[in-house]
# Entry
Amino acid sequence: MEPATRLDNNHELTAQDFPYIIRWRDDRCKRCGRCTAVCPMFAIEPSVVVKRQIKSIGLSPEPKSERSVETVVRQTSDIQKFCTGCATCNLVCPNDAIEPEYNPQHKFLFHKNEGGHPYRRGGRRNDPETSTLDRLKFTRISMLTDPALDAGRHEFRIRTYLGRILPAEELPLIEDNGKLILNKSAGKFVPPVREIYPVMIGSMSVGALSPTMWEGLAMGITYLNEVEKMPVVMCSGEGGIPRRLLKSRFIKYFIPQIASGYFGWDEIVRAIPEMVEDPCAIEIKYGQGAKPGDGGLLMAHKVLKLISEIRGVPQGVDLPSPPTHQTKYSIEEAVAKMIQSMSMAWGFRVPVYPKISGSRTAKSVLNNLVRNPYAAALSIDGEDGGTGAAYNVSMDKMGHPLASNLRECYLDLVKSGKQNEIPLIAAGGVGRKGNLAANSAALFMLGASAISIGKYIMQAAAACLGDEHNRCNVCNIGKCPRGITTQDPKLYRRLDPDKVAERVVEVYKSLDIELKKIFAPMGRSTELPIGMSDALSADDRAVAERLQISYAC
# Structure
């Protein structure tokens, strides 16, 4: 016989173990059921409780026990249904009767490794500290000898080039009646180059993003190109592109990505003869900043009919991408063969470049690209980049900060005299605190020719609920309450693609104004201040020495 003192719920978790505690007010709740219906994690549920009250009535009363049955909203103690703090329940509650409250004393990570699997999350790092980029300031202000410009009235041209830029003496140009024309008979290979807006939308795939989110981004950049005349481009991420888009004229605003899983590339290759326009460029992904050296994974519950058709795989199966391109022996062989084969596929008309994660070996990859005449650029993804699915230990403990890695690579190009040939694309945590224009301008001055953003545009265009306190961060399991990173129709129908497109346009128009406000006092208007590091200062001596910029306090 078991001891009478045994507790049946002794192994259950308490609310104090969870990262968010749901505060529910009985006096305000009208039991409409909206909060329990909208919760993507099923962290709250309607329940019935029996309450026992002791009452004494009369002049000489005897205590009597009364029981009552009441309906309540209860937070579940199941670790698989933990509250992520997204506050969608509070959003739909008409009486403000419920809200999650962050619990700084939680022990969530101690309990989440059920089944022998470590905690995997998506979206953001849990680092509340200010990044290096946010500590940089622009201290070179032009005065009398080098007049500053009027940001409101002066004409600016904020553009950059994607593609390898040959030195002037190597260009096969001849003079014809006072004009320079291309000498096609010279037999000299001229790399393809695209003029783009220097801040692009980074690689987020169809599959990682919901159909409505991806559609909204696509409509937004199309409007920017064709109406606002801002040549903003977007990388597709691994997973292919809808066939209808491949055959349309809008493909020129996109950069298809080929990664180690090769998902969707059968459809892309078959569509080449029917393409009416070339894509902007081709990105070959070797690594990503949030989990360097690790492969990707699109979980089975995201692989629904639309995704399976685009990627050419069965429905409902996990889609893992290996850590590296399995058909290649080394990074040197991979870069050479992949870049050449992709260039040949489009008749050497499209720039092709690799994307790597920020690491100590980034300079080695760059040195290989310098010797490859077909390499168009190098994209470096720093450690603060977002991802759809990564283990906690990868996101928090692996990777290289972007600023110093980019600076090392740029200075390496300067030493070899190639700083104007190979563009460097910087990605990973840009605008993490909302300072997109300032972070971008600082990266330009550290040596970047272009910036790639992902998390920022999800927050700005679709009001992503994630933050640095482990709030939400369920991008990887397909339960995004906003409908951004899910393939569940019940969830992604919450997101209006037209609103997403409008916000994308607003973000870029405001970004353009802020960049002008930064460049104008420096007297820059027609070209980006790439490598103009004398305009930067840091309030930390170690940071200033590491980046080789001035120290100001």
Notes: Residues 331 and 365 are 7 Å apart (CA to CA).
